[in-house]
Amino acid sequence: MSAIIEIQNLSKHYSLGSASKSTLREVLSSLNRNNDVFKALDDVSFNVERGQSVGIIGSNGAGKSTLLKVLSKITKPTSGRAIIDGRVTSLLEVGTGFHPELTGRENIFLNGSILGMSKQEIRLKFDAIVAFSGVEKFLDTPVKHYSSGMYVRLAFAVAAHLDSEILIVDEVLAVGDAEFQKKCLGMMKNSEQSGRTVLFVSHSFAAIRQLCTKGVWLDQGQLKYEGEINKCIDAYSKSFKSTKIADSNENDEVEIGDIFAINSKKQSLKSFSNSEEIVVIVNLKINSKDAPDTVQLRFVDSSGQVVFLSNHSDRKAILLKQDWNCLTMTIPAYLLNEGIYSLYMGIGYHTLRWVVRELKVFDLEIHFSPMNLDFASLSRRPGVFAPMLEWTREEDVKIEADYD
Amino acid sequence: MSKTIIDASSDSISFKELAHYKELFWMLALRDFKIRYAQTFLGILWAFIQPAATILILYMVFGRFAQVDTGQIHHVVFTAVGLLPWTYFSYVMQNSGNSIIAAQAMVKKVYFPRIIIPVSKALVGLIDFGINAIIVIFLMLLLKQEVSTNIWALPLFIVIGIFVSLGIGIWLSALTIRFRDFQYVVPFMVQLGLYITPTAYPSEFALKQLPEWASYLYFLNPMVGVVEGFRWSILDCTAPHGLSFLSFGVAALVFSSSLFYFRKIDGKIADIV
């Protein structure tokens, strides 16, 4: 098989501050000043084979979106090049160019032509697009009156019907409900079977695992790993634990050692399946004679909502001794929803005086493991938690409520 | 299909690629036209009321108060014909300047030749141009004004007018991305332009009052030649002044330089907008 995309030493640099120079005076006054350079992409090279699905992973600001933008010709690289052998469709956003005052029908044509379809092509696929979107009744209503769900469905329906050899998708799955996400994944999976090449950026490892065969991990603009998808995700997950706890540790009373999470196989990870029990390990050194009586861990989801908090003496009093202490907290399997959680730690006396307050310890990611996919949805469920609770069916018995 | 190479060099503006996106021109123009009068009570009538009101005001000021002499031709017709290319020009100037900034959400998320955005504004302007032309025909019939035998030359002046407007529009759209200052300059340019272009008075009227060196300056305004040409080919007014070629020269320069500058900035638009 031949490479459909060849990326050779691709770099994209932004000079910091230049973007804000939008008035004449600013340009004139900064002519002889050198600006700092931010390397959004730094000498990245890899190939994509025809028909391959590639997942691009990395933390925020790693250059994933920049790479997609360069490949979709939205922005030019600073140096290096990419050779693309086929028609590219990029879906960096659902519904680009939709206008609220136009009707659904008009927006289908507008959006289609923005994405590079000809009128003829759109007309041919019009019925299929409408059927896929399920908004037949509202075709002649301005889209500003649509619910956000309808809006997204219509927009995605247009994109789903593009014919191109290469599909570039950026986190579009982040919008819409689980049903819609499934539809998107299904559509991309189909396109993969039809020999289409897919480049896919997502924070959802479950989605990437399902869809992609190859992974590319970017870190601070550089290519860190390229290879089989599961190995790539593992390599990326392992990198999480190297985060150092900040210097906020300047404290006479306590000294904070390693804090990390392990699975049942004692592997220290930052990405866990929801099917495994997670043990968080906290190492602390108490220097004062009067030891703090509360060690608190707080789980906060990506929207900033506290999911739960837990104190080390919730169930039984555990006294901390003056020296190193190793505490463990166990999170049961099948409890947390898919997502990224930040752990914050607090150490204090009777929750009145805090020695350490809201110290961010690390992030961890929960993904729905493909093992329990048979009936459950593969991605995030609505709700804060996603417990798998026990259900039974009682034989031949009707249990009456007993109100006495 | 040939391979696409993405690198740091700037692409020339490819007409083949523009031809592929030709429907996008229409879609964007159509969108602008459809949403312009959305949720207004009078709707499309506004497209007639606005130019009619401008003609009336200029007639009052120049025809009645200032008593500008337009010879055999009724001042209303004289002004209406003068405004025909000017209104188009000012529409394109006002709307293309901001066009790329207004479309930035799109520009940052999908690729298509960026030049389509300002050019589609020139296309929408043609709809208004048509409406204005209807008003002119109506006035000519009403005031029993005969059409000149020079009418064969009109398409030529229309083409020049379109190229000037495109040139200025492309320049402004590219400059406004970098220098938002132009957002404030454009309304002023439009206001000034109405007076330094012979829309409601014949150019001799201005030239009489100007020293010779200033008449060269006067014709540096590319719209002077176009407006004069319109009136000559429709109403048989005096043929365009010899200096009009200065106007046409400026027009050609503005258009070709605009493409050159746009090409230079094209690859950076998504980064700086």
Output the keywords.
heterodimer; A: 404 residues; alpha/beta; Rossmann fold; Coagulation Factor XIII, Chain A, domain 1; 2 domains; six-stranded mixed beta sheet; 8 helices; 22% helix; globular; B: 273 residues; mainly alpha; 14 helices
Strand count of chain B: 1
First and last CA, distance of chain B: 32 Å
Radius of gyration of chain A, CA atoms, in whole angstroms: 26 Å
Oligomerization category of the chains in this entry: heterodimer
Overall structural class of chain B, as computed from helix and strand content, comes to mainly alpha
Strand content of chain B: under 5%
What does the secondary structure layout of this molecule look like, with pairings?
The complex is a heterodimer of chains A (404) and B (273).
Chain A (H helix, E strand, L loop, with lengths): L2 E13 L8 H6 L7 E13 L3 E5 L6 H8 L7 E6 L3 E4 L12 H11 L4 H15 L14 H13 L5 E5 L7 H16 L3 E5 L3 H7 L2 E6 L2 E7 H11 L14 E9 L8 E3 L4 E9 L7 E8 L4 E6 L12 E8 L7 E11 L3 E15 L37
Helix pairs in contact in A: 3-4, 3-5, 4-5
Chain B lengths: L3 E3 L8 H6 L1 H15 L9 H20 L9 H23 L1 H4 L1 H4 L8 H27 L11 H25 L3 H15 L6 H5 L4 H9 L1 H14 L8 H23 L2 H4 L1
